[in-house]
């Protein structure tokens, strides 16, 4: 009797930037790597890549496409809903973490990107992080898994290693995983420079309309190589500085010791009015970078802006620091526009001591993020969003 052998894909990733990845106690561990976070990130990029093809197969019917996407994802990666409809994964992930260490010092130049929860101005870093090392991965498929499924996982593994990361603040460039090579039954792919990244991007489907109900590749997706050089943390620091100086109103007219650009004076004034209990008609422009979007004014008032019922809206901007085998690095920034919030979602603007102001299905302007990306004068466009 002849048995089909399982198909395997192997890949190697470098941990390029500090990774805040831990267990239930939030403590990093350089001896045990938790595949649940990796599989979650892999599923995210699988959905982002496959939304367009599945929407097309469903003749543009968004509801049917969401159902089909969920069904295919569950069949491929497994489900854990209830006994009647749970399913096992067609692919098992096995990882080995090597040459990694746990640290809890430094990163002072990255405090803007770290944000609250990971950094405190007085106490410094609040959690340890994984530093350096490499992750060796094997994806083993059940015998009989269709080649289209294997190829789709291969694409997602590659996208994770070119655009993504793991752990807290992954969208801000922390925990960046840089794929070095990938072996599959179709051969070996090595990622030795920017042309290899551009070649992979050329294989992706960007035909979906811009109103995607999830983070996905669409006609509006933009991918830039914003900066290049070494070391990786220097690039991430430059990204953080530009993001802070672009967005910040400043204190006493200064940001990082430089004259504040004050690109969003109207945001400042409207937010101050809302913090004082006055109604405003629209979200601050900078809310497009994600919610919650909070303000604390030197004059005393504060303002919290969240989707109602304490929801969140993750940033549509992804920062990834990629390191090539020769040690050179590139900062990849990806903008994935889509429906900012589900229809009929209210956003709550709440000043301390005042009744909340509700905005129903507020609109955002993705041009705000395009203008930020345009500030990197040496950028190389990998894909211009339409």
Automatic annotation (TrEMBL):
Key words, A-Z: Antiviral defense
Where would you find the membrane-spanning parts of this chain? none
One example of a Gene Ontology biological process annotation: defense response to virus
**Residue ranges of every copy of the CRISPR type III-associated protein domain listed in the record:** 15-177
Q: Is 4Fe-4S one of the keywords UniProt gives this record?
A: no
Superkingdom of this protein's organism: Bacteria
The record ties this protein, via Pfam families, to: RAMPs (PF03787)
Protein name per UniProt? CRISPR-associated protein, Cmr1 family
Q: Which organism is it from?
A: Pseudomonas pohangensis
